[in-house]
């Protein structure tokens, strides 16, 4: 008899008598399970998906996700045991052959997830688990090629492990390189070689993709098509991605190579306005997800939706009548499988719940930058300069959206969203000319700046010192991190706060920021 049924048959007085000793001596594992985790939320409902995401900056082309029926007809993912990918010079002797002798091992049994600790542990497994083995970014031949590591300046652990992908063993002799895990973009190899999960990652993904396209001998048409799948937004004013595609193969590859570590042209964004890889540590307290605040974050269900959407289901979105991979609505609704990376299966709701629980559990490492007399002076300057208005302690964000230059906030938005109605003047390209664009940027949290970088939403500045350098506002400035592939100099405009401080005050302010 199930615990729920057994409890329901108890007389009320006896239930009360039993409850007191249970509270005194601690609930059993099964009772904890029933009271805490019996109802995993169903997250992809037609009603919930109507207004979860903000509209596009061009509202006529706001995302139309797949239906509840389509979503829940997708098969649930089977989670196999995975194995680390080594640089060829560091791979243990016989490792490759050993992998091919292994049988598949399923490592996640949802029926055994009983406590919060169980869910968090499973969530870490899922955070590292690659959802694609079709070669969405790189494949086996790339990571077994020494030139790949040299060309991309790939960060490695001291053991020579490349932590951004995994070997998936789906059966004896069936060894596939897995791409598109959360960890791919949200793992940082620290200076000492240790891994910081959930941080702004330093996976050189666009350089890796350029290497793959070039060494595979991809044709110009193929490179144009793939780049269109990822980034095209033909409804955007000026159609910047259409112009990029027209420049030809070599220019497109150079655009990929221009994106630095710490940024990544994920689908629906751009390699012309590449988004800084977000820091997930502390994300539980943020109200909006994506640099443009595309996804509202009101509860754990929203985080679960965000994970599912961002693990490639947005390739199935329609934007007006436009679909990134060329689907028609008739084809989408035909019931035939769509074999495109990340869209042919899905995480179960229980898996998404575990993943979200793990992400919520992420905590920062110990900060080596301890408070000092200099940083205490910087703390005063931070307040005097009004930084606390947008970067309000203790979260160091006011959790609001700020409109970009050129975007007129609809009146209805003030009632629906948290808007700080002043633009700080940063480059509007990402939020006005991409599929994920909303017309806004979210006010970022400053927590953990010491382990992050490069900075600003487009990763254009390598160091905090660059942020306060007035030279960056001039057209002859050479950005210290990202700069477009086809320019030599470019002003990094916007967020001009603190630029008039003297050098000592700037030094003190930076010292304070690094303690956060």
What can you tell me about this protein's structure?
The chain has 516 residues and is mainly alpha-helical. Helices cover 35% and strands 8% of the residues. The chain has 3 domains: 3-38, no CATH class; 49-361, no CATH class; 373-399 and 443-513. The protein contains 22 helices and 11 strands. A 3-stranded antiparallel sheet has the order 2-3-4. Strand 5 and strand 6 (195-197) form a beta hairpin. Helix 11 (205-215) packs antiparallel against helix 14 (249-257), helix 15 (300-310) crosses helix 17 (349-361) and helix 18 (373-384) crosses helix 22. Residues 1-35 have low confidence and may be disordered.
Strand content: 5-15%
- Enumerate the strands of the largest sheet in spatial order, edge to edge or round the barrel: 2-3-4
Return the average pLDDT rounded to an integer: 91
- Number of DSSP-assigned strands: 11
Sum up the overall morphology in one term: globular
List the total number of helices.
Answer: 22
User: Which spans of ≥5 residues are poorly predicted at pLDDT below 50?
Assistant: 1-35
Number of domains: 3
* Rg: 24 Å
The major sheet is characterized as: 3 strands, antiparallel
What's the helical proportion of residues?
A: 25-40%
User: Given the helix and strand composition, which structural class is it?
Assistant: mainly alpha
Distance between the termini: 52 Å
Protein name: Cytochrome c domain-containing protein
InterPro entries: Cyt_c-like_dom, Cyt_c-like_dom_sf, Cytochrome_c_Peroxidase/MauG
Domain Cytochrome c: 168-363, 373-516
Organism: Belliella alkalica
């Amino acid at each position: 008899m199930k615990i729920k049924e057994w409890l329901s048959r108890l007389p009320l007085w006896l239930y009360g008598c039993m409850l007191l000793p249970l509270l005194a001596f601690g609930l059993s594992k099964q009772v904890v399970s029933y009271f805490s985790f019996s109802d995993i939320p169903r997250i992809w409902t037609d009603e919930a998906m109507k207004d979860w995401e903000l509209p596009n900056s061009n509202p006529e082309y706001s995302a139309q996700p797949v239906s509840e029926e389509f979503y829940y007809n997708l098969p649930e993912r089977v989670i196999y045991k995975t194995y680390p990918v080594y640089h060829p010079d560091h791979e243990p002797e016989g490792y490759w052959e050993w992998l091919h002798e292994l049988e598949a091992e399923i490592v996640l049994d949802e029926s055994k997830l009983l406590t919060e600790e169980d869910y968090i542990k499973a969530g870490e497994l899922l955070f590292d688990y690659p959802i694609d083995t079709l070669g969405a970014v790189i494949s086996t031949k790339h990571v077994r090629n020494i030139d790949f590591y040299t060309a991309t300046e790939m960060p490695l652990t001291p053991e020579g492990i490349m932590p951004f992908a995994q070997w998936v063993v789906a059966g004896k002799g069936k060894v596939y390189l897995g791409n598109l895990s959360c960890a791919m973009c949200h793992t940082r190899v620290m200076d000492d070689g240790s891994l910081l999960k959930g941080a702004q990652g330093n996976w050189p993904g666009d350089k890796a993709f350029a290497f793959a396209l070039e060494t595979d001998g991809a044709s110009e048409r193929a490179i144009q098509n793939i780049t269109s799948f990822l980034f095209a937004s033909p409804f955007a004013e000026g159609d910047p991605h259409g112009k990029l595609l027209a420049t030809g193969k070599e220019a497109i590859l150079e655009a990929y190579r221009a994106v630095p570590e710490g940024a990544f042209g994920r689908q629906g964004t751009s390699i012309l306005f590449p988004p800084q890889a977000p820091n997930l540590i502390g994300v539980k307290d943020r109200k909006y997800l994506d640099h443009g605040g595309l996804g509202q974050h009101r509860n754990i269900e929203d985080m679960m939706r965000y994970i599912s959407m961002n693990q490639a289901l947005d390739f199935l979105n329609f934007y007006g009548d436009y679909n990134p991979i060329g689907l028609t609505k008739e084809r989408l609704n035909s019931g035939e499988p769509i074999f495109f990376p990340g869209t042919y299966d899905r995480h179960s709701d229980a898996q998404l719940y575990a993943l979200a629980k793990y992400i919520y559990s992420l905590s920062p490492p110990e900060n080596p930058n301890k408070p000092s007399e200099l940083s205490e002076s910087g703390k005063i300057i931070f307040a005097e300069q009004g930084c606390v208005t947008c970067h309000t302690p203790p979260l160091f964000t006011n959790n609001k959206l700020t409109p970009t230059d050129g975007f007129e906030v609809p009146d209805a938005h003030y009632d629906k969203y948290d808007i700080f109605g002043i633009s700080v003047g940063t480059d509007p390209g990402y939020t006005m000319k991409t599929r994920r664009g909303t017309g806004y940027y979210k006010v970022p949290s400053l927590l953990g700046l010491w382990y992050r970088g490069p900075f600003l939403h487009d990763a254009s500045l390598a160091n905090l010192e660059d942020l306060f350098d007035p030279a960056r506002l001039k057209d002859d400035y050479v950005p210290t991190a990202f700069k477009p592939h086809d320019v030599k100099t470019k002003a990094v405009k916007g967020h001009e706060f603190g630029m008039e401080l003297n050098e000592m005050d700037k030094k003190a302010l930076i010292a304070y920021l690094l303690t956060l």
